[in-house]
Specification:
globular, binds magnesium ion, Helicase, Ruva Protein, domain 3, OB fold (Dihydrolipoamide Acetyltransferase, E2P), 5-stranded parallel sheet, binds adenosine-5'-diphosphate, 19 strands, alpha/beta
C-alpha cells in the first residue's frame, strides 16, 4: 500500500480550460443565496443556488450514485457551473471532467472508458498502522563489497546506522536492500528517515532542524523537520489517498508477470483491466471500510456535451450509478428534444427516459445584456487587459445577439491583437478587426452554404 501515497485528483485539471479561469466558486452566501456577482459568477441565480444544494449534499455524503443534468442552450454557463461545483467541493473530493466525445476510441470500449472515469472519481482514504523505525541519522557507516559482475567496482552491501529521537538513540544493522535505498535517497547525517519494519522501505522526511547541517546553511532546498518524538521503533498511523482506479492499476501490476515477462512478449500496455481485478479491489475496499480502516469519498464525474453519448453509454451509466461504489454523475446537454444516439428514438434532451427518471435537472437560461457585459468585464480582468467603453459595448452586443461563448473568445483574441499593436487597452477597432477576421457559427454556416452548390458539382 505504501506505493500509493498521492493526492486525490483535483479541480486543478480545469486550469487547462482557459475560458473558465475566472470562476472561483458558485458565489453563494451562508444561506445558499446567490449574489448577482460573486466569485467570478454573474447572474444565473437559480442554477447556481440549485448547484449549491447539490454541493452541500455531496459534502454530507448524501448524493452518491445520483445523476444531475445541466440543461440549457449553448453558452449559458453549463460548463462554468460544473467548474464552480468543482471549486466548491475543494481538493478532497475527486472531480473528473470529460467530454461525451471522449468515449469514442478505436482502442478501447466505450463502457471501459466510462468505467475507468467513474473509478477515478471514488476517493479512498486508507488508514494503516505500521511498525517503523524513525529518527535523525547521527551516524551512517556504509559497507561495500566487490560488484558481482565487475570486481573492479565496489557496491554498497550493508550499513550500520544510528538513529536519534528526542527520547533515545539506537544503532541498527541493515542489509543491502535498505543500504542501497539510503544511498539512492541521499541520506546522510542530519537526515530524518523512516524505515518500514516489515517491507524495509525507506522514506526521507527532510533535514533535522537540530542537526549541525541544518544550522550550517541558511538556504537549502531540503525541507527542515523537527527531530522525531518518542522511541526509534514505534507504531504509527499512515493515511494514504488513492482512487479506485489507482488501486485497480496497482492490483493489476501485482498480478502481471515481472519485467522479464514483459520484455519477452513485448508487453502491450494493458488496455483493459479484467472485471475480476476490479471485483477483487471492490471486495478489499469494502472489507477495509467495514473494519473502519478506510473511508470512501465519492466524487463527481462531469460529462460535458453528454448528448454525444449513445444508448450503450446511457445504459451503462444507469447501471453503474446503482452500484455501491458509485460517484455522482453530472451530464451537461444543450439538446431539447433529440434522437438518442444509437437508436431511432426521439426523447427529451436526447436521453433515455429511464435515465431521466433518476435525474435531478438544473436548467440554465440565456443572459440579458447586462449579465453579458459583466461577464466580459470579468474576463478582461482575467486576461489582464483593459477594455474601452466602445469596445465593451460592441462585444456585449455580439454576446447577447450571437453567442456569449463567441464573445468571450473574441475578447481573448482582441486582447492579443491590442497587445501585438503595443496597447494594453482593447479599442473598438480591435473588436471590429477580429470580428471581421473570424466567424461565429452561423456565419460559418452561411459561408459554407455559399460553396455547397459549387462543391456538389465536383
Ligand atoms: N454565469 C456566469 N458567470 C460568469 N461567467 C460565465 C457565466 N456563464 C458563462 N460564463 C462564461 O461564458 C463562457 C461560455 O459559457 P460556458 O460555460 O462555456 O457555456 P455552456 O457550457 O453552457 O455552453 C465561458 O467562458 C464561461 O466561463
Ligand atoms: Mg459547455
Amino acid at each position: 500500500m505504501s506505493g500509493i501515497i498521492r493526492e486525490l485528483p483535483t479541480a486543478a485539471r480545469f486550469e487547462r480550460v482557459g475560458a473558465h479561469t475566472h470562476i472561483r466558486g458558485l458565489g453563494l452566501d451562508e444561506k445558499g443565496r446567490a449574489a448577482k456577482i460573486k466569485d467570478g459568477m454573474v447572474g444565473q441565480e437559480r442554477a447556481r443556488e440549485a448547484a449549491g444544494l447539490v454541493v452541500k449534499m455531496i459534502k454530507e455524503g448524501k448524493l452518491a450514485g445520483r445523476l444531475i443534468i445541466l440543461a440549457g442552450p449553448p453558452g449559458t454557463g453549463k460548463t462554468a457551473i460544473a467548474v464552480a461545483i468543482a471549486r466548491e467541493l475543494g481538493l478532497n473530493v475527486p472531480f473528473i471532467e470529460m467530454s461525451g466525445a471522449e468515449v469514442y476510441s478505436t482502442e478501447r470500449k466505450k463502457t471501459e472508458i466510462l468505467m475507468e472515469a467513474m473509478r477515478k472519481c471514488i476517493g479512498v482514504e486508507i488508514h494503516e498502522m505500521r511498525e517503523i523505525y524513525e529518527g535523525e541519522i547521527t551516524k551512517l557507516e556504509l559497507r561495500t563489497a566487490p560488484h558481482p559482475y565487475n570486481p573492479y567496482q565496489r557496491v554498497v552491501d550493508s550499513a550500520k546506522i544510528t538513529l536519534k529521537t528526542a527520547e533515545e538513540e539506537r544503532t541498527l544493522e541493515v542489509g543491502e536492500e535498505i543500504a542501497v535505498q539510503l544511498v539512492q535517497m541521499g541520506a546522510r547525517e542530519g537526515t530524518v528517515i523512516q524505515i518500514d519494519a516489515e517491507t524495509g522501505r525507506v522514506s526521507v522526511l527532510g533535514l533535522s532542524q537540530e542537526s549541525s547541517l541544518a544550522r550550517q546553511y541558511e538556504v537549502d532546498t531540503k525541507a527542515k523537520v523537527p527531530r522525531p518524538q518518542g522511541k526509534v521503533r514505534k507504531e504509527k498511523e499512515f493515511v494514504y489517498y488513492a482512487t479506485l482506479a489507482d488501486l485497480d492499476k496497482l492490483a493489476a501490476r501485482r498480478r502481471g508477470g515481472g519485467l522479464l515477462f514483459s520484455l519477452l512478449l513485448g508487453a502491450p500496455e494493458e488496455k483493459e483491466l479484467s472485471p475480476e481485478i476490479r471485483m477483487e479491489v471492490d471486495r478489499q475496499v469494502k472489507e477495509m471500510v467495514d473494519q473502519g480502516k478506510a473511508f470512501l469519498h465519492p466524487g463527481v464525474l462531469f460529462i460535458d456535451d453528454a448528448h454525444l453519448l449513445d444508448l450503450e453509454c446511457f445504459s451503462f451509466i444507469s447501471r453503474a450509478i446503482e452500484s455501491e461504489l458509485a460517484p455522482i454523475v453530472i451530464l451537461a446537454t444543450n439538446r431539447g428534444f433529440a434522437r438518442i444516439r444509437g437508436t431511432d428514438v426521439e426523447a427529451p434532451l436526447g436521453f433515455p427516459p429511464d435515465l431521466l427518471d433518476r435525474a435531478i435537472i438544473i436548467g440554465t437560461e440565456t443572459y440579458d445584456e447586462e449579465s453579458v457585459r459583466e461577464i466580459l468585464k470579468i474576463r478582461a480582468v482575467e486576461e489582464d487587459v483593459e477594455i474601452g467603453e466602445e469596445a465593451l459595448k460592441k462585444l456585449t452586443k455580439i454576446g447577447a445577439e450571437r453567442s456569449l461563448r463567441y464573445a468571450v473568445q473574441l475578447l481573448s483574441i482582441a486582447a492579443e491583437h491590442a497587445k501585438s499593436s503595443g496597447r494594453s487597452k482593447i479599442t473598438s477597432e480591435d473588436v471590429d478587426r477580429v470580428d471581421y477576421l473570424f466567424m461565429d457559427v452561423s456565419e460559418a454556416v452561411q459561408h459554407l452554404k455559399k460553396y455547397e452548390e459549387l462543391m456538389m458539382k465536383h
